[in-house]
Amino acid sequence: MSNLGSVAGYDSSFAYSINNNGQIVGDSNRPSYNPSFYDFHATLWSKGSTIDLGTLGGTESYAYSINDNGQIVGESQNTGNSAIQAVIWDSNSTSTLKVIGNLGTVAVDNNNYGQVVGLSNYPHVPSFATLWSNGSSVDLGSLGGLANFANSINDAGLVVGFSSRNGISDSYATIWTNTLGLLDLNNLLATSLPGGAHLNGAFDINNVGQILAQTNNGYYVLTPTTVPVPAAVWLFGSGLVGLLSFNCRKNKTVNLITA
Amino acid sequence: MIGFKKTARVALLAGIGFTGASSATTYTWAQLPTLAGYQNSVATKLNDLGQVVGFSRSATMPNGDATIHATLWSNGSVTDLGTLGGAGTKSMAYGINNAGQIVGASNISTIDFQINNFQAIPRNTLILIAFNWRSWKFNI
Questions:
Q1: What is the structure's pLDDT at A31?
Q2: What was the pLDDT predicted at B21?
Q3: Which of A5, A119, A200, B61 is 20 to 30 A from A45, comparing alpha carbons?
């Protein structure tokens, strides 16, 4: 175990994500002993350097995910600290902090195709699980309640999170696909969970389609029962091969659930 | 109404080359065991090999504190990842890549508020979540 340290002048740090090239993102904070004063700056650790990613003009910024292309997503307060906004940084050009969402948005995960998920309307209710893709913003829907969150997107474009069914007082793990919309993961389990437990949140989905989910009594890894089909095969069938040529990545196999 | 919205969304996404599933699969499940000697755990991330990281929390001590250690679940075994040492007794893992490299945080003094403010699971109360994004997302 090694200490990454923090941005110069800061005295604590938190690392949230590491990509397959060893680049790490998180935040640096000062002073760490005063919980009533926050000064968090999104931070990149890359190739031996610790880099302050800056803010949109406000006090705080946070970097939550870095993909294999070095694209970093997170949130930053705007000038005057009146609101937060989902933002993206490029690790190859750290001065290019860009806004990708409206006021009250947070970006929490991105995939290797540049698609980003997070939430909108923070800190109000209802919160909207949101996908930003190719310049468009998509509301991922609801199970009927007012609290909707998107936590993770994989390279197949599958999104997991959770949503409430009644107000904001309960939650159910969700998966979203572009063809099926938002689904309650509890309805997709091959067998029931022990003790009548239900999945109340899904926090990560990997490129094999496995999902990390939570109950009130512990965490579960969900594995799809359908054999994944490589993206190239599926794309040929869908006629989208040409459209995707601009963002094809080397040696990258994209799996997705299908029937 | 719902059907209309879904149709519109699919049309939009198909037009921009979006990929996705044509129908839902089902899922088998496996529960992550608790690290020996600890009371419960929080899992935060899994990589493409199915390795999971997070942290484990001990029973609350008489002074109200608890030991929290970053934890790895891999191929059926549970590993205590330890801490950076010093006066800190808490570490948490939040990221793992496909090479098995793990990142997170470890306190190195007892005044590190980020970790001392940690709240144990369960975190199913969305009222709190809606008004404190980071408490929900990162359990800190």
A1: 63
A2: 46
A3: A119
Longest dimension (CA), chain A: 57
Q: Is residue B129 part of a domain?
A: yes
Rounded-to-5 percentages of helix, strand, coil across chain B: 20, 30, 50
Q: Provide the CATH number for the domain around residue A148.
A: 2.120.10.30
- A222 within domain boundaries: yes
Min Cα distance A93 → chain B (Å) is: 23
Is residue B3, in this structure, part of any structural domain at all?
A: no
Residue B127 has pLDDT above 60, yes or no: no
Chain centroid to CA A76: 15
Which of A108, A109, A221 to probe by mutation at the B interface, max B CB count within 10 Å? A221
- The answer to whether residue B76 is domain-embedded is yes
- Let me know if residue A35 belongs to a domain: yes
- Tally of domains in chain A: 1
What confidence tens digit (pLDDT) does each residue in B56-109 have?
Answer: 988 888 877 788 899 999 999 999 998 877 666 788 888 999 999 999 887 765
Q: Is residue B16 part of a domain?
A: no
Which chain A positions have a beta carbon within 8 Å of B43's beta carbon? 203, 212, 214, 219
Residue B43 and residue A1: Cβ atoms within 8 Å? no
pLDDT score at B108: 67
- For residue A230, give every residue at least 6 positions away whose Cβ sits within 8 Å of its Cβ, in sequence order, or none: A253, A254, A255
* Between A107 and B17, residue with greater pLDDT: A107
CB-closest option in A13, A29, A220 to B29: A220
In chain A, residues with a C-beta closer than 8 Å to the C-beta of B22 are 179, 258-259
Closest CA to A132 of A120, A144, A143: A120
| Chain segment A34-46, per-residue pLDDT in tens | 555 668 899 999 9
> Which pTM was predicted?
0.81
Q: B73 to chain A, minimum CA–CA distance in Å?
A: 10
DSSP B40-65: EEEEEEE-TT--EEEEEEPPPPTTS-
Mutate to test the interface with A, among B4, B7, B12, B22 (most CBs of A within 10 A): B22
A70 touches A90 (CB < 8 A): yes
Q: Which of B13, B26, B31 sits opposite A220 (nearest CB)?
A: B31
Name the residue range of residue A76's domain: 12-226
| CB nearest A178 (choices: B10, B46, B108) | B10
| Residues spanned by the domain of B97 | 36-138
Q: Is residue A137 part of a domain?
A: yes
